[in-house]
Amino acid sequence: MTDRIANAQLRGKVMSADEAAALIPAGAQIGFGGFTGSGYPKELPKALAARIKAAHEAGEDFTVNAFTGASTAPELDGVLAEVDGMGWRMPYQSDPTLRKKINDGTIRYTDIHLSHSAQLVAEGFCGRLDFAAVEATRITEDGSIVPTSSVGNNKTYLDMAEKVIIEVNSWQSLELEGMHDVWNGYLTPPNRPAIPITNPGDRIGDAFLTLDPGKVVAVIETEDPDRNSPFKPIDDDSRAIAGYLLDFYANEVEHGRMPKNLLPLQSGVGNIPNAVLDGLLKSDLENLTSYTEVIQDGMVDLIDAGKLTVASATAFSLSPEYAHKMNEGAEKYRRSIVLRPQEISNHPEVIRRLGVLSCNGMIEADIYGNVNSTHVCGTRMMNGIGGSGDFTRNAYISAFVSPSTAKNGAISAIVPMASHVDHTEHDVMVIITEQGLADLRGLAPRQRARKIIENCAHPDYRAQLTEYYEAALASSKAKHTPHDLAHSFDFHRSFLENGTMRLS
Ligand code: 0RQ
User: Fold this and answer.
1) Dist. CA 496–CA 23, nearest whole Å
2) Residue 373 CA, ligand 1 centroid: distance in Å
3) DSSP state of 379
4) How far is Cα 55 from Cα 35, in angstroms, rounded to an integer?
5) What are phi and psi of 108, to 5 degrees?
6) Distance from Cα 220 to the centre of ligand 1, integer Å
């Protein structure tokens, strides 16, 4: 047995993943740890999927409802989706098998702002929580948990669940201890105090997750790595988009609208945010800070280069190479990284106070600046809103980035009317594609439309968009936000019918 379980009572609960899975009945509501491929339980979901598969083969109904922090990995979302083992899932996912089952109607999915998800559970909106299943680096003598590579919603799930299953993972570095900051002062209204974070690196809580050891029904020992995909190499479009964003920030500094070392950065995940981080690395900017959701490879490089002094997040989202690097160097990195519960890392109050600069990917934006982050052609769920709404709504400057086309040019990222709206024109300040940047601050809708079409749309779609806008302007009775509702979704309809948004 590993020496990572210092509590004698919990040492007595060690069992196999199959034995632990056997404790979970059909219909159970389970709060799984895990956030963007980090710190999720790895053996229990596989064993549970095998149990569910066997039950289905025996003709029994068996699904569980799965709550997480955010996306997990094939060993959790993938295996449970594969056996049709989830009835319902929240709050964010990105697994291809799960996505397919959500879109074919097998699995119900509730896509929630990440900062809201713990509150929904804590206040009982989602019903009772039967189990919390979380990963631990180690269990202390008093039965507290040292979290691993994510904190996510673990605190709330441990507080609210009737029973707890812990995976103690010796792949995770013991030196992570001290990196986490779990605030226990977050209460339900009307008793909520101000969150005492005034700088991204402020530590306001404990380095452990405390729980009642009497709730623990199983402890599983594992030695499995987190499973994150490596990033794609940075392409020319991503580099161009990153360049526009950094020039824009430089201009803000020049005009005295933000300090020389910028303001705390939030960065979504993906190729373009990674290119932005690479651009920062190559710039002469110094003393940068980050108040974000996930620590990516590029942030580790910035810390190594001494350019990023502190990064606050709720999880890592690292490539295998960088996850290894983090494990080797956790003792050093914990001096500049703080991992918090996601309701604090993504909290509107703190984001607004710190003046965070947000930058997230999008599916499409319309000519007035409404952004769709989640639904292809308004109906097919991609991943979910994640933390993009938490940050966009409250950022000092909110930016959205995307190539101007997708699927080899068959799709325009700029459309007449967004087919689903996650971020409204009121919240979206800057849109950037490889074509250019549209600074929408202070512009009225008609000014926004011209700027977005001219600066951000791909040349192949500019004429089509201008034609739509001019016709809408001419025909619309009200001229504030002109639309021609008979043709607002021609681009999408054409894609669904002909495989391209190019109108014949
Ligand atoms: O599909 O891989 O099959 O080719 O969407 O697109 O351009 O690689 O960009 O990885 O940044 O993802 C909005 C999905 C963008 C992401 C979204 C297709 C495209 C490709 C990926 P393929 P790219 P990204 C922090 C913040 C919401 C959550 C969020 C996202 C695939 O950024 O999930 O921001 N955001 N969280 O081909 C059809 C379009 C398309 C399209 C792109 N208009 N129509 N397909 N694609 N545009 C993180 C967390 O919250 C945890």
Assistant:
1) 46
2) 7
3) T
4) 29
5) -80, 135
6) 35
Site to probe by mutation for ligand 1, drawn from 363, 414, 419 as the one with most ligand atoms within 8 Å of Cβ, is 363
Tell me what the mean pLDDT of segment 99-124 comes to: 97
276 lines ligand 1 (CB under 6 A): no
**Within 10 Å of residue 19's Cβ, how many Cβ atoms?**
12
Q: Are 15 and 203 in contact (CB under 8 A)?
A: no
- Decide: 314 and 346 in contact? Cβ < 8 Å: yes
pLDDT digits (tens, 9 = 90+) for 469-487: 999 999 999 999 999 999 9
Contact status, residue 85 vs residue 62, Cβ threshold 8 Å: yes
For the chain, state the CA radius of gyration. Answer: 23
pLDDT band for position 1 (cuts 50, 70, 90)? low
349 is catalytic: no
Tally of CA atoms within 13 A in the half-sphere of 419 that contains its CB: 24
Catalytic hit among 43, 293, 343, 434: 293
Which residue, judged by its Cα, is nearest atom 38 of ligand 1? 376
CA–CA gap between residue 283 and residue 136 (Å, rounded) = 38
Pocket flag, ligand 1, residue 491 (CB < 6 Å) = no
Would strands 380-381 and 375-376 be described as parallel, antiparallel, or unpaired?
Answer: antiparallel
Q: Which residues of 319-328 are buried (b: 16+ CB within 10 A; e: fewer)?
A: beebbebbbe
For each of the domains in the chain, give its residue range(s) and CATH number, in order of start: 2-222 (3.40.1080.10), 236-459 (3.40.1080.10)
Indicate the SS3 state at residue 430.
Answer: strand
Q: What CA–CA distance (Å, rounded) separates 438 from 442?
A: 12
Closest atom, ligand 1, to C-alpha of 232? 8
pLDDT tens column, 265-309: 999 888 899 899 999 999 999 999 999 999 999 999 999 999 999
Is the confidence metric ipTM above 0.95 for this complex?
yes
Smallest CA-to-CA distance from 105 within 90, 92, 86 is with 86
- Establish whether residue 383 lines the binding site of ligand 1, counting it when its CB lies within 6 angstroms of any ligand atom: yes
